[in-house]
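Q: Structure tokens for this one, please.
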Amino acid sequence: MSNSIIRSLQTTFLALTLVLAAPFAMADDDNGYRYKKPPTILDTLVATDGAQALVAAVLVVDESGVLHFSLADFFGNKRTEALLFAPSNAAFEKLLGLEPGTLNGLSIQQVKDALPGLLPDGVGVGDVANILLQHVSQPRRANLWTSSENALLKKGEVKVADGSVFPVGIGATGVQINYETTIIKSDITARNGVIQYIDTVIVDDAL
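A: Here is the predicted structure, written as tokens:
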């Protein structure tokens, strides 16, 4: 094989390598390249239209200091391993007795400012914190092998942060948690875990 053919093959191989690598790399400040990391759970929620009420609830709980740690820091920490059952805005509207669509178009800050006044009589921020903890599970490794919709179904139950164990099964509307909460958007992967969006806030014995 001639030197010119070898050089041509080497050039073609190098060009192909750069093309294949491009979607997985991003420019670094040091003019190098690094693999692009997916967003954290918190980043994903903040960027998701329909999750404003959940993020607002997290911020209200954090500002109150009722927990000994920050939920926002937990969901934003890249070393966290978490499965989050994330109630939609519609789920919070149902819980709070609001008309459907009430939270549509509101920012996280607007929902956060309004949330304390929307809580039913006798329900405080401590109760909101307890409710949120029932939406978080911490497997040793939170990925699609352990925390996908299919993995949850196979296991048949999930243990959440407050120690409760909820059954997982097939209901009339899909995969259900604790018999009454349905997964409506599944297997959203984040850098530090997996998000399962749900249609109903899990309350169990929190209220």
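A few notes: The two ends are 78 Å apart (CA to CA). DSSP finds nine helices and nine strands in the chain.
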